[in-house]
Design the sequence.
């Protein structure tokens, strides 16, 4: 995952969704149950294409083809809403792999979400 960089379009899209209140304020451990399945991902790609699919992934591997699921890393939502558990998972995993730009972006989203919990 050496060439993985922040997907700014996805980061901006996530911020817009959060500002619009399209969020699920769940706990970190919920992601295993809340994250889209491979079948849900494939269905979304079939209906919306890879350009829209990319909006849901904070990381992008520029070495992978634009029209492949392998290009997109660090999902944060379920194709409808931002999930706090997905953001937390992306933040931790990005930190583990030293993708500091993605980690910072996820931390920013995390702060926005926790602000909503108020």
Sequence:
């Amino acid at each position: 995952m050496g060439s993985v960089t922040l997907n700014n379009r996805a980061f901006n899209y996530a911020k817009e969704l959060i500002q619009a209140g399209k969020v699920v304020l769940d706990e970190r451990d919920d992601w295993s149950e809340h994250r889209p399945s491979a079948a849900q991902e494939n269905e979304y790609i079939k209906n919306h294409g890879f350009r829209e699919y990319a909006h849901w992934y904070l990381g992008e591997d520029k070495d992978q083809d634009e029209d492949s699921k392998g290009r997109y890393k660090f999902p944060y939502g379920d194709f409808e809403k931002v999930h706090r558990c997905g953001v937390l998972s992306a933040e931790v995993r990005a930190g583990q792999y030293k993708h500091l730009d993605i980690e910072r972006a996820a931390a920013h989203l995390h702060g926005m979400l926790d602000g909503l919990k108020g």
About this structure: The two ends are 36 Å apart (CA to CA). The chain has one domain: 4-117.
